[in-house]
Amino acid sequence: MKPPGDTHCSTMRPAYWYVSLLVVVFFYIYLSAIQLVRGQELPFKYHHYDELTAVLKDISATYTNLTALYSVGKSVQGRELWVMVVSKSPFEHMLGKPEVKYVGNIHGNEPVGREVLLHFILFLLRNYNNDPYVRWLMDNSRIHIMPSMNPDGFEVSQEGQCTGGKGRYNARGYDLNRNFPDYFRENQVLRQVETLAVQDWIQNHKFVLSANLHGGALVASYPFDNNPNTILNQFVSSASLTPDDDVFRHLAQVYSFNHGSMYLAVPCSPLGTKFVNGTTNGAEWYPLTGGMQDYNYIWGSCMEITLELSCCKYPPTNQLPKFWEENVKSLLLFIGEAHRGVRGFVTDEFGNPVEGAILKIKGREIGFQTTKFGEYWRILLPGVYKIEAVAEGYAPTEAQFAVIDETPTQLNLTLFRSTA
């Protein structure tokens, strides 16, 4: 009971006190959000769609000069297929500099890559001003990161489920990594909205290098994922090698040997497959029709590999820090491989860019195309090569060049109008 005449505790607090309290609370939340997007307190947890969206938007709002957030389309259930560009030039292509990408969570119940990529975005941004290699990479590349290609599947997946298919497929029950056009067989499976959106994305950006992230094994797999339709291949899995097999083996080993344990080739189970050096040819492991990495290589002029990051498809949350530590170096060094080989411009005799010119390295029959600016890139290992370029209405041309390990070879080509 208050003593008689005591009015100190009986009066209501003035309005400014409540306003001040609200300001303090808001400021605290604001500071917490800033710390979160700067990576200081980003929790190692599985971020559901709304949380993932909020984090990406916060990152974009904080690092306005180094990021651009966009969507390539929507899932069956209307969720955005978010992509974050991390670069010195996030909003515009840098002439003569490569575009690279990472795609996570194509199978909804394999979400380790989804979370690793979210942390990788923040790692790049936090280290731009203090790590020379990160700065060089961001100054000379545009890095596109799609944490989840299958957000609908993720939402129905269950943490701790190491096997099984719940959440693997999109909302219409399709496996998105069996849904692309195939090099060896006609893929008659109905194209899904997620697949079509990614196909358009690949065609519009002319990526040079890519990886898609999975779970359920620990290996770096490279094309081809499918093999020719022969009688033998109907009964036995055999390697299906691309003309650029030396490059793909190298790319897979760059990831594996810089990973915390992949290169050790320890099987996921006593009867599991032992992958030498932690790498494998996709078809030799098991053939599949409609895979995304083969589509990138054949139709996108982009070298892509598949990364299996965890023996358990959807491991417990408390294992996420380990997966991040195992993969961060590999993620960083892998995309740097876009800066090896040969690059240049194809122009006409007046210096105008020739868009859609088809180039081939002699002895490697899979071609690649120039961009609307006449640019081209091809990852190659050290050696001496010949390149040929053809375009409708022009006489073909070819040139010999050498590739060294330290820096990409700059080689510009001129096409002359055909007189025939």
Could you describe the 3D structure shown?
- This protein has 420 residues and is an alpha/beta fold.
- 30% of the residues lie in helices and 22% in strands.
- Strands 1-2-4-3-5-8-6-7 form an eight-stranded mixed sheet, sandwiched between helices. Strands 9, 12, 14, 16 and 17 form a five-stranded mixed sheet that branches. A four-stranded antiparallel sheet has the order 11-10-13-15.
- Strand 6, helix 7 and strand 7 form a beta-alpha-beta unit.
- Helix 1 packs across helix 2, helix 3 packs across helix 10 and helix 7 runs antiparallel to helix 10.
- The N terminus is likely disordered.
List the helices and strands and how they pair.
Elements: H1 15-37, H2 49-62, E1 67-74, E2 80-86, E3 99-104, H3 112-127, H4 132-140, E4 142-146, H5 151-156, H6 193-205, E5 209-214, E6 217-222, H7 245-258, E7 279-281, H8 282-285, H9 292-299, E8 303-310, H10 320-336, E9 342-348, E10 358-361, E11 364-369, E12 375-378, E13 383-390, E14 394-395, E15 397-403, E16 409-410, E17 413-417
Parallel strand pairs: 3-4, 3-5, 5-8, 6-7, 9-16, 9-17
Antiparallel strand pairs: 1-2, 2-4, 6-8, 9-12, 10-11, 10-13, 13-15, 14-17
